[in-house]
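Backbones bend. To wit:
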Amino acid sequence: PDRFLAVIAEARANADFVIAYPHWGTENTHVLERAQTEQARQYIDAGADAVVGSHTHCLQGIEHYRGRPIVYSLGNFWFNHEDGDTALLEIRVDGNGVSLTLVPCLQKGGVTSAADGADKQRILSHVESISEGIVIDESGRIAQSSG
C-alpha cells in the first residue's frame, strides 16, 4: 500500500481527477475484508477522488468516504463461461462534482450484455443491500443516503 499511496499522491499533484484502481479482496464473496476498507480510505486520504476495486469476481458494495465514492468490485465484465451478475460504472465529472451510475449486466455463455427488467432491478437492489450509506435509483444513479 505504501507504494500505491505515493503514486496516488504524485497523481494528485499532476491531475485534475484521480481514480485508484486496486486489485484486492477475497474471490467470490461480497463480504469486504478489513484491508479493503482501510486501504480505500487511505487512498482517498492520499488524494484519490474515487476508488474502484477489482479481483473478487463478484459484485461488492459501494460507500462514500469524505464525500468520495468507493466501489469495492464490479464483478467480472467477462472472465470465463460461467454465468453471473456484473456491472459497468459510469463516472461523470463536471462542474457540479462527481456522479456515478451503475449499469447492471449479465454474463451468460461467454457473452456480457446489459441487464433489463427484473434482472436489472435485482442487481441494483443487491448492490444497494450490500452497500453502506448509499441509495441506487431505478436508473442506476448512486447517491449518498441521507440517513
